[in-house]
Amino acid sequence: MWKQALNRGFKYDQPNAAARKLILSVLSSTATRREARDYLVKYGQNSPRANHCLLLIRHLQTMGRGTLWQLSGAIEKLRMLGIRPIFVIPPSGHVMQNAETLDKVLTTANLRPLHLQDALFRGSDGTYSSILSSQASLFDSKSLDLIPVIQPYVFDEATASQRLTNDMVSFMENIVPRGGAPYIDKFFILNNIGGIPSDERRNNAHVFINLSQEYKTLASSLSEKAGSFSVREPQSQNLLDRLTLHLKEDELISLERQYKEHLEDLQLMNAVLSRLSNSSTGLITTTKAAASTSDRKNPLLYNLLTDRSLISSSLPRFKARPEQWDEDHSWYEMSNEVEANDYAFRDPEYSGAAKHQEDSILVTTVLKRGVHIKMLEYRTLSQYNSIGLPKSFHSKEATKVSYNEDSKVNLTKLKRILDHSFGRDLDLDHYLNRINGRIASIIVIGDYEGIAVLTYEGPSENPFVYLDKFAVLPHLKGSLGISDIIFNLMFKSFPRELLWRSRSDNVVNKWYFQRSVGVLDLSIALSDDDRKNSQFKLFYHGDPDSNKDPFQDKARLKEYATYVRDIEPSWAK
Q1: What is the pLDDT of residue 230?
Q2: pLDDT for res 239
Q3: Which of 363, 367, 147, 144 shows the shortest CA–CA distance to 276?
């Protein structure tokens, strides 16, 4: 499929054979058909515009020759894949040394560097102008094919002098054109410490960050941690405590610097991506990972071709990733012939963390400006907290509260996305009769571009949370990480028990398998006198640190299966 797509006219200034080989090595094993199509449309010969990426590389002066040589190869591949790099050198005492090093890297990659010392101009009235905006045609020119190398200097008209910036976030915010030319599609930061650390992933990097949802919380957390390491006082004045502090002084200073750098990287991402299109992507990783000679594991190349992270951010952090996931899931399910008392499949890695391995996955964070998210937690929908509620569901007992429009559940839009996503007509009355009064949460992404409806099911004295409806508009599936965002929210909001079901022939089951802890075929005999044919599989996700394991509790397992199996669909006949 990939060869046919490429042979239909994907063309480069560079040798076609080399470009095709590179693309095929990644696309054939990692990308979906949609991702391949989107990539070819955006970066192919018929692309309506030249696409650029910003590359900010820290600590160039500390890198060995081998890493620099490998990095030049990765940069050359980026250019072969159809994106034009624009390099930015961060402020330090090594700007000129780093500029010389970068010059050698680009020359080795058969590219033509153009060094810019006055890329940002500050007028006497305090306004800024960027050379990227004023000379956009120069950077888009195919005949010149220059690679800008921006040095962190500002020319100040008021003093007629050049100065090294002391505020990199402000510098980048002013250097990047807002929605204009040249068109910048990616922003990559390379460093020695990797992506934004995640407590949930044992301080390995966050896989994906939705900035509109997570920026303030993460920035506050990083600032707090940096501050905690800056306070270096012994627990007491006795000799042992003072000696312990002295021995740890260098370590504490290093940790403080690391967290300050993480914070600035996050701030840079937020500032730059807020000026680019909503589809633009940021990525933070180590220079070592970016220099990887493996096309399939290089986070820069992988993200350019697929616009996502090396792994999905909603994969459970405690699950290993067997190679056979990509080929065969037969070992992962429970056979129809197995009795419920033999229990369902339970992930062998459920109680432990995945084996630690030093690779690109652990040090790479992908970021998007993101989408607006709201969680509406009304157990019962009324005429006051919803829009489009049929009059038969209006209640005199409902509390009359003044809700703003954004905090109401818009049932008209909710039905529209479900109808469109499933290609069927939802019987709204039947559906509301089933869920109203037992809603756990309704997650809404953007203007109903993605939704999840969660309900309380099971026995009233011990209910469990069930994902009743999950939908993303077809044209947004795979983009902006909407599905991952929804599943991450659900896992965080309901960590103890979360269930959902899916038809046995659903093509999405592979994705569901990877995010579940256990799977049960609902056609099995739940007891001697309770067996029904079912077209559904039951998926379960739970907290690996919980002392209670429902997969060792036959009675609870039967409750899951019985209640989920017997839920009646609400599609119109």
Answers
A1: 72
A2: 65
A3: 367
pLDDT score at 227: 85
Q: Hey, CA dihedral for 272, 273, 277, 283, is it positive or negative?
A: positive
Residues pairing with 183 in the sheet:
51
The segments of the chain whose pLDDT lies below 70 read 1-16, 26-31, 179, 231-247, 316-358, 475-480, 525-531, 544-547, 549-551
User: What does the pLDDT read at residue 518?
Assistant: 84
Residues 442-463 as b/e (b if ≥16 CB within 10 A, e otherwise) read bbbbbebbbbbbbbebbeeeeb
Distance (Å, whole) CA 100 – CA 485:
42
Q: What is the pLDDT of residue 13?
A: 43
Sorted by sequence, the CB contacts under 8 Å of residue 416 that are 6+ apart come out as: 448
Give 206's DSSP letter.
P
pLDDT of residue 44: 75
For the chain, the distance separating the N- and C-terminal CA atoms, rounded to the nearest angstrom, is 38
Q: What is the pLDDT of residue 457?
A: 95
Neighbour-count burial of 563, counting CB atoms closer than 10 A to its CB (0-12 exposed, 13-18 middle, 19+ buried): middle
| pLDDT for position 216 | 95
Give the amino acid at 521: D
Closest residue by Cα to residue 371 from 468, 489, 454, 263: 489
Read out DSSP for 318-344?
Answer: T----GGGGT--GGGS--TTS-GGG--
3-state secondary structure of 189: strand
> Strands, DSSP E only, in 79-182?
83-88, 112-116, 120-122, 128-130, 146-150, 153-156, 161-164
Environment class of residue 511 by beta-carbon count within 10 Å: exposed (0-12), middle (13-18) or buried (19+)? middle
As given in the structure block, the two tokens for residue 262 are 């993480």
Radius of gyration of the chain (CA): 27
